[in-house]
Each structure stands twice: as structure tokens, then as C-alpha cells.
Amino acid sequence: MSTLKITSMLSKFLTARGKTTSIGRPSHRVFVTATSRPLQDKKDKQTAEACQSVTEAAESVKDGARSVKKAAETVTNMSKEVTKKVSDTAEAITDKAASIIKEKVVGK
Predict the structure, then answer these.
(1) Is 60 helix (H, G, I), strand (E, B) or coil?
(2) How many domains does the chain have?
(3) Is residue 1 a part of any domain in this protein?
(4) Does residue 57 form part of some domain?
(5) What is the mean pLDDT of each run of 10 residues along the chain (108 residues)?
(6) Which helix (H) or strand (E) holds 21?
(7) Does residue 8 sit within a domain?
(8) Are 25 and 7 in contact (CB under 8 A)?
């Protein structure tokens, strides 16, 4: 295709301020707009900041989960210790009661 034919085709439909218009005679001016670099950089920075915030939040959640797990392990260990002490105390009371009953029944 020749340049003249392409120019002729393009000139029929040009975009002027967001509106497509049809033009009868050829025009050699074509305007192209693109996002400027500062706007793209700003978006990239915002995206990076958002990613950083999400990463920090995830780390906080992990730390919280570790703390809860550690607290649960501590409570479990304490419960085991209390259970053992209660069992030992109950056994000691049972032995003492049995010896008192034996003394009363058999006599000294």
C-alpha cells in the first residue's frame, strides 16, 4: 500500500479530543497521546508500597500465630503439671486416709 493511500484512509477518520470525526479532505496531522512517565512511576510506587504493606501484614499474622501457638503450648504444659500435682495430692490423701482407717480398725 502506498503512503498516499494510507494517509488518505487515516485522514477520513481522525480522533479530535476523544470524538471520531470524518474529514473530507486529507490532513497530514495526527495527534497521539500516551501516559507520561511520572504517572506510570507514581502507579509503580503505589503498587510497590501496597505490596510492601501486604507483606508486612502477612508477617504480623505469622508472628501472631506463633505467639498463640507458644501460649497454647505453655497452657498445655501448665495443665499437665497441675494435673500431676492434683493426682499426687489425691494419692497422698488416699494413703493417709487408709492408714488412719487401718489404725482405728486394727488398733494400736
Answers:
(1) helix
(2) 1
(3) no
(4) yes
(5) 55 51 58 62 84 94 95 96 96 93 80
(6) strand 19-22
(7) no
(8) no
